[in-house]
Amino acid sequence: MFSHIMVGSNDTDASRAFYDATLQALGGKAGMVDPSGRVVYMHDGSLFIVTKPIDGAPACHANGGTIGFAANSPEAADAWHAAGLASGGTACENPPGVREGSFGKLYLAYLRDPAGNKLCALYRMPA
């Protein structure tokens, strides 16, 4: 469904350390830096990119926005959360755990990255 997601950062080194740790906890690879200084993560044909804003204005996070990363298990979501906290992220929302709603039972873990972007690791619990 998605070709790419791009988030802004005023400190791409701090963001790279954070995303290298959290995305590797989900089975991804470390990011690479392109000639424009953007940090690029590739997985299963999709791209996740961290960049300083092209217009030169300061980066800011989307109020009400969340970027969700798929986890293969609750343990993977917990590892993602722990890696994020250890790499400059901050906890937000409720602690990691199962929530039930209109999409069924989901295991969710929330963080904010060093730039303030709200993230979630999501595992769909078996019915």
The CATH class is: Alpha Beta
Q: List the secondary-structure elements in sequence, H or E.
A: EHEEEEHEEEE
Coarse shape? globular
CATH architecture: Roll
The CATH superfamily name is 2,3-Dihydroxybiphenyl 1,2-Dioxygenase, domain 1
The residue fraction in helices comes out at: 10-25%
Counting H and I runs of at least 4 residues, what is the number of helices? 2
Largest sheet, described in full?
A: 5 strands, mixed
- Low-confidence segments, given as residue ranges, are none
Which range does the strand content fall in?
Answer: 35-45%
Tally of separate domains: 1
Q: What is the C-alpha radius of gyration, as a whole number of Å?
A: 14 Å
Instruction: Say what the CATH topology is.
Output: 2,3-Dihydroxybiphenyl 1,2-Dioxygenase, domain 1
| Strands, total number | 9
For the record, give the distance between the C-alpha atoms at the N and C termini, rounded to a whole number.
24 Å
Mean pLDDT across the residues is 94
Task: Find the structural class using helix and strand composition.
Answer: alpha+beta
What does this structure look like?
- It is a single chain.
- The chain has 127 residues and is an alpha+beta fold.
- The protein has one domain: 2,3-Dihydroxybiphenyl 1,2-Dioxygenase, domain 1 (Roll).
- 21% of the residues lie in helices and 35% in strands.
- The strands form two sheets. Strands 5, 6, 7, 8 and 9 form a five-stranded mixed sheet that branches. The protein has a four-stranded mixed sheet with strand order 1-4-3-2.
- The model has no long low-confidence stretch (mean pLDDT 94).
